[in-house]
Design goal:
The complex is a heterodimer of chains A (112) and B (116).
Chain A lengths: L3 E3 L12 E7 L12 E6 L6 E5 L3 E2 L7 E6 L2 E6 L8 E7 L6 E2 L3 E3 L3
Antiparallel strand pairs in A: 1-2, 2-7, 3-4, 3-8, 4-5, 6-7, 8-9, 8-10
Chain B lengths: L2 E5 L3 E2 L5 E8 L8 E6 L5 E7 L6 E3 L7 E6 L4 E6 L8 E7 L6 E2 L3 E5 L2
Classes of the chains: A mainly beta (112), B mainly beta (116).
Chain lengths: 112, 116
Amino acid sequence: DIVLTQTALSSPVTLGQPASISCRSSESLVGRSGNTHLSWLQQRPGQPPRLLIYDVSKRLSGVPDRFSGSGAVTDFTLRISRVEAEDVGVYYCMQATHFPRSFGQGTEVEIK
Amino acid sequence: ELHLVESGGNWAQPGGSLRLSCAASGFTFSDDTFNWVRQVPGKGLEWIAHVGLYTQNIHYADSVLGRFTVSRDNARHLIFLQMHNLRDEDTGVYSCASGLTFLDHWGQGVRVTVSS
């Protein structure tokens, strides 16, 4: 089974500053079709998860453009260009290339 | 807009059974696939089951394989999770989520508590 390992942010983030979260997979997430089904979800306190990015870098309609995704094969990154107060929450990467599906353990974004 | 609403959450003793339902509305149900995901309060997300367009296309996490059964009723726009032989570690909030290669819509979830 595939294990996704996320990095923790080293400290709370200052409003307006960038933040990056890394997600590393134990195996390649490139599927037989050539697509890489790695997505990023945001979970605000008390809310269900919300999809932000899918297929590594495709932003869902309505997601602010300060969120971007990048990476390939086993190493992926979610970047927030300028953190806003509403970005507080836990961010998860998820792979849907292979069954069983799997999530990273989550990375909390806190504001300084 | 797509809406998913779970029901059936409850308390059960270890070894007991529960059946969760997820009602879907706002889209063409038969064109979409669904997943069950659980979350222990204060912990992360755990994917547990997927049901495809056809009930032959079903997958489970190892932690629930042989104990949980996922199914769908296309006529009534419902997804089910039948849970047997429940364990303490099955306690959590269970959510249904739509999608095959990404999970784009989520319900609010229902709480399942397993304890003696």
